[in-house]
């Protein structure tokens, strides 16, 4: 759709007139501002480029010092149709022209009667974030958000599904910009990939964001159908080893209201094998335990989500939403054990049977209200979130001798509720055309209670006896209050943003029935700064600094022993200090024809670095805990190259290389560890036939060090074949993951008095077949008509 330019504002006297051109750019589908859209002004008579700029966070742009004359302006953004406004006349009588609100449509061009979709790249970079286009990830269609993130070089996922961002498992997960009561990896496992629109990775967030998390923020943007009338999508998938699932999203939009409802259910079984080698050294005795056998893990997440968006006149929008979900996991291991000591030559042979059931059920309610003042970019936003979670964990481990008699056993139970309530206000004031001031406040209140019970098998009675000394009830209280202020401005392609956030934290840990409590009462300050420069030829430069914090998780602070099995116990550390992070980034992005190239360097310093450490608890028993061990420094380079050699072949290559150095004190002794890590993803996508795509992806993760050990690297290969039917309403995708069975988990840790090594792998390959159906989706035809019109206008200019 073309927007007519309107000559606005008053007249100026003749002479040396300096004209101005301004406007706003929006996403046509979502009516949201587009930041960093390219604005290029050309002289009408010879198409000579005169000047250019980019849009600010509110989608506003302004070109100044424009001499009188006839011009045309080109407005473009990656993945959208280029929009051209012709015959803009700057005169001495009308030197200031406002072109109005420009709506950009997703790129679709008609070529000889065939619809060709200009797809967005797998990953694009903006000033403060990377945006992952989930629809391009064919190999993860039947998986979760975790599977999507595996293809991002700055993200690492182990065989258990634990996620780390730039080498740290400490990051914040948001869903549609809202906090979740779930732990980061649990929240990502809960979300089906087929219900995700895109994922934003914000490694250096501005002061507007909660500073929690060492490596930044992962914001998952869910799909929300916004077509008129009834529309929706449905997905079904099934695979080998009893894997299956499905989800759907249906919405109804009419007039001022948009209502949506979605549901999902998945059940995945992962059989595998495990080998463990453990040694402890006490006095003059060395104790050894070797084990190997089969393992089985079953994940069963499901959930419901619903919401309504209301347009309350011209100035207000209200959104109400709710979600209910659950995640159940079962774990079982049958391992053959060989135990002996030196000096000595006798071996004890037995079988270990371990089972565990983990579940959490949660619900959340959200309210968002956006008010626009007379200036559309002058806004006040209110967001309220309330969440509850009920967590249950039960596990038992039994050792049986060669005759089948139980020689020892432990049973552990943990349960309790958690509550999170958050109120957030954000105010945005455009002071001048390019200068914006923002301010906000937040209150986040969390409460939780956990009851832990331990039972030990009594060989004399044949019953499990309650162990009072290892059973506790703990109550946690944490309140955070925050204020922030920011300003941003653009000038001739140069954009800058600065902010400061202050937070007050109150934390109380109480042991019910015991005279122990631990408190924290502290103010913290978090400055941020972002700078960007967009060249008229499409090059973009970015630099930023942020200060962040990672507060200890509740179970990291538990001051008591919890038995995991016969050979492992866990204990928290109530004296654990929060980690403080100084993060610096420098990036560059450019367009080379139809190819996208980006390069980013980063340097991160983590003070009070927290590491998981092990020590000997007793003979053959390892104690696992957490400690502040010193300072962690990471210097890295991250890059992406998206190349389209020919119309049917696209290559996306991403890589992350970083040097890590950990130094401090452990067990009263100074230490220093340094290693070089690199990770790369290489994806080929082929358009085999109309409606047919083949994607082949390879990933490599190098070995990495910790304060007490090393995790080995691995390489894995995935492939997917997608076929579309019935004008793209139905799609079928065959996925094969870990084709060659090379993905593994191998970890070693050691100290002066212990050595521990574990090797695990899952049954491979993982084969899934998925079906996707879109109903009442007439968006494509509307986009094609608009694209044809834009294409004809470009021909008129030649």
Keywords:
798 residues, mainly beta, 22-stranded antiparallel barrel, six-stranded mixed beta sheet, 3 helices, 48 strands, globular, disordered C terminus
Summarize the model shown.
This protein starts with 5 loop residues before the first strand and ends with a helix. The protein has a 22-stranded antiparallel β-barrel.
CA radius of gyration: 29 Å
Helical element count?
3
> Average pLDDT value?
83
Shape: globular
Largest sheet: 22 strands, antiparallel, barrel
- Low-pLDDT runs: 1-15, 108-118, 777-798
Description:
This protein has 798 residues and is mainly beta. It contains 3 helices and 48 strands. Strand 38 (621-646) and strand 39 form a beta hairpin. The longest helix is centred in the last third of the chain and has 19 residues, at 779-797.
What secondary-structure arrangement, pairings included, does this model have?
Layout: E1 6-7, E2 19-27, E3 32-33, E4 38-43, E5 49-54, E6 60-66, E7 69-76, E8 83-90, E9 96-104, E10 108-111, E11 114-117, E12 123-126, E13 129-133, H1 145-149, E14 155-157, E15 163-165, E16 172-175, E17 178-179, H2 184-190, E18 196-202, E19 217-222, E20 229-239, E21 243-254, E22 257-282, E23 285-312, E24 316-342, E25 347-372, E26 379-401, E27 406-430, E28 435-458, E29 463-466, E30 472-491, E31 494-511, E32 517-534, E33 540-550, E34 561-565, E35 568-571, E36 579-592, E37 595-618, E38 621-646, E39 649-666, E40 669-689, E41 692-701, E42 704-705, E43 709-711, E44 714-725, E45 730-737, E46 745-751, E47 754-762, E48 766-775, H3 779-797
Parallel strand pairs: 2-9, 16-19, 35-38
Antiparallel strand pairs: 1-9, 2-3, 2-6, 4-5, 4-7, 7-8, 10-11, 12-13, 13-18, 14-15, 16-17, 18-19, 20-21, 20-48, 21-22, 22-23, 22-47, 23-24, 24-25, 25-26, 26-27, 27-28, 28-29, 28-30, 30-31, 31-32, 32-33, 33-36, 34-35, 36-37, 37-38, 38-39, 39-40, 40-41, 41-44, 42-43, 43-46, 44-45, 45-48, 46-47
